[in-house]
Amino acid sequence: MSTPDLIIRGGTVADGSGGELFEADVAITGGKISEVGKVASKGREEIDARGKLVTPGFVDVHTHYDGQVTWSQDITPSSQNGVTTAIMGNCGVGFAPCKPDDHTRLIQLMEGVEDIPEPVLSAGIPWAWESFPDYMDWLSRRDFDIDVGAQLPHAALRVYVMGERGARRDPSTAEDNAAMARLAGEAVRSGALGFSTSRTLNHRTSTGDFTPTLKAGEDELTAIAGAMHRQGRSVLQFVLDLSTLHEDLPMMLRVADSTKCPISFSITQNDKAPQRWRQTLDEINAAARRGLSVTAQIAARPVGLLLGLELSRNPFQTHPSYRAIAHLPLQERLARLHQPDVRKAILSETATATDDPLFFRPDYDKMFLLGDPPDYEQPPENALGPLARRQGRRPEELAYDAMLSDDGRGMLYVPFLNYSDGNLDATREMLLDPQSVPGLSDGGAHCGIICDASFPTYLLTHWTRDRKRGEKLTIPFVVAAQSRKTALSVGLADRGLIAPGYKADVNVIDYDRLHLHPPKVHYDLPVGGRRLLQDVDGYEATIVSGVVTRRQGEATGRRPGRLIRGAQGVN
């Protein structure tokens, strides 16, 4: 028997199957797991994992690294949170296929939908491709710290085929559908794992236009999904609106039924209909019993906005006195905000509605101080409204002072999905559903308002260890959900299990020390672009294809990650 390249000694293994924890050595040879149990031989390299949790690498099925993979080899922050495979191209947005004249159009769409600043995308993306196969070929020559998989984005495809008609959401013709289907088939042959689309009014370009895919017809979606699935396993990922769910979900199920294409979509709890998620899960379970492959993607915690002076939005952004100074650099703005007359003027004004889908007129009964350590499941009495009433003050004053704290870097937290009940009980039920997987981390996106790429870590810290306001989940369940179950949902049967023959993507975790820090703004994107990041402690080692890519939370500089070309089986 050949000498193992790496042996992880004596760890407590959660193998991704959902079974009980057990103590074992894990040997890795040639990028694959070669032995699990008591390994007698010595490895070329060894990691002492006694007292540590050993898990498969996590598979994040909902990210937006489509731009970042073109300028960076380190897929942070996901790779800092135990993720060893990230699937990008979600929500119908991406950068291939694209004609040269449409570069700006796709950048504006990504900026508007995913809050990735235009200067970052314009400076960072090299546009060394036009077709989707060209994009895949270009990416295949790059090395990363994790594996990345790509989906064909509907908006890019529609604009590529239909031009201005596609952008303004005209109905497609039979010729358009045939052209899109042909290109979709080519995308699968080049390695696309799926196809993504969006039907939500919240997805708009930075200039305010709705996404080109908003009202795409059933014939268009059926042609595309059918062509892709005929070429190989391909998942249809989509985002729907609550207001049109009663029409769009049955349509998507019909598309799945007629094409036999697996589908995957997001389910959240919405304040406008806080029990609708139950009905939706009932519908997809009924579809699964009919033989359809349907997966619900569930957020690990509230989908929450972070508001602050350094961020994309804040509660006072529509107040005239704030708008008058909003253009100033942070330190100049901060000096003005400390002036009593400016403070008085801003607090005397009220917020007005905008057409920005991520600006909500402030509800101080659902706005919190996130705290350190950050607390994403706070009781309603912790909100600024109740807190201000107990202090005999206005909540606007508390919000104003909170944002001025930490030299103007203070943040407010607004959970706007998955928190209708003031707790995460509904989220727990959603995660436990047999048709669901963890999703919606949006790694690489929402750089100045949402910081949810830490979902994989939160699933372990909050749900298996720290939760105080309800029932927890078990370590085996959480590990299986975000490794094996997510991998299978996108056709990657070669990973997500610690067992001989599987890809050697592994985490060694100091479970007791695993900890998320509060989000902070970093200016490390191209042209000094801003993004929210969350430091994490407790990942002793992350291993991709048998190579240690991170130790003690620091990158080793080794990048064995590659572009995934299509669905994968166990060799």
Description of the molecule:
The protein has 571 residues and is α/β, with parallel strands linked by helices. The chain has 18 helices and 22 strands. It has helices spanning 68-71, 103-114, 118-124, 132-140, 154-162, 164-167, 174-189, 218-231, 245-259, 276-289, 320-323, 330-337, 340-348, 384-391, 395-408, 425-432, 455-466, 475-489, and strands at 6-13, 22-29, 32-37, 45-48, 53-56, 58-60, 83-88, 147-153, 194-199, 235-240, 263-267, 294-298, 303-307, 368-369, 412-417, 436-438, 506-509, 515-525, 529-537, 539-544, 547-551, 554-555. The strands form four sheets. Strands 1, 2, 3, 4, 5, 17, 20, 21 and 22 form a nine-stranded mixed β-sheet that branches. A hairpin with a 2-residue loop joins strand 2 (22-29) and strand 3. The radius of gyration is 23 Å and the shape is globular.
Annotation, overall tally of beta strands: 22
> Which class of secondary structure composition applies to the elements?
alpha/beta
Largest sheet: 9 strands, mixed
Q: Given the C-alpha coordinates, what overall shape results?
A: globular
Could you give a short description of this structure?
This protein has 571 residues and is an alpha/beta fold. It contains 18 helices and 22 strands. The longest helix is centred in the first third of the chain and has 16 residues.
Features:
571 residues; alpha/beta; nine-stranded mixed sheet; 18 helices; 22 strands; globular
